[in-house]
Design brief:
3-stranded mixed β-sheet; single chain; alpha/beta; CBS-domain
């Protein structure tokens, strides 16, 4: 099966989109991430949910997970406030740090899509025709194809 047949409509956000709104959209739709488009409207990167968590969870807690127990429910609820007054641009790697995009062309096979996603540790592969995003393939969609 080709990527064009596996792709599903998928939301995109701009680099200047509100970080809180992007995270809420991800949560509301139960998406593993979002496709981020650059200032030129072309795909820039994929923002996985894990990157949002990386942004809001303090580094010292990530380094020492046992410290997370020191956060009570009120304190953990306040972590989301870190998204306030930030944009998606603040959460994604800088262009120089992004070596490759998790994108495939419409004629890519399911195995090619899986290889891109596995190599890049991305839960989403954007299906791109030229500069246009046709949709995306999620890990769950791909696994459904491989595991009927």
């Amino acid at each position: 099966m080709r990527a064009r047949n596996l792709a599903e409509p998928f939301p995109t956000v701009s680099l200047d989109a509100d970080a809180m709104a992007a995270a809420r959209a991800m949560a509301a739709e139960r998406l593993p991430g979002l496709i981020v488009c650059g200032d030129d409207g072309r795909p820039y990167t994929v923002l996985p949910g894990s990157q949002v968590l990386n942004f809001i969870i303090p580094k010292y807690v990530q380094d020492q997970p046992g410290l997370a127990r020191a956060f009570d429910e009120r304190a953990s609820d306040e972590l989301s406030t870190k998204l306030a007054h930030h944009t998606v641009r603040d959460m994604v790697p800088k262009a120089a740090e992004a070596d490759e995009l998790p994108v495939v062309d419409p004629d890519a096979t399911a195995i090619e899509v899986a290889a891109v996603m596995a190599r890049m540790h991305s839960p989403i592969a954007a299906v791109i025709d030229g500069d246009r995003v046709l949709g995306a393939i999620t890990v769950s969609r791909l696994l459904t194809h491989f595991l009927p």
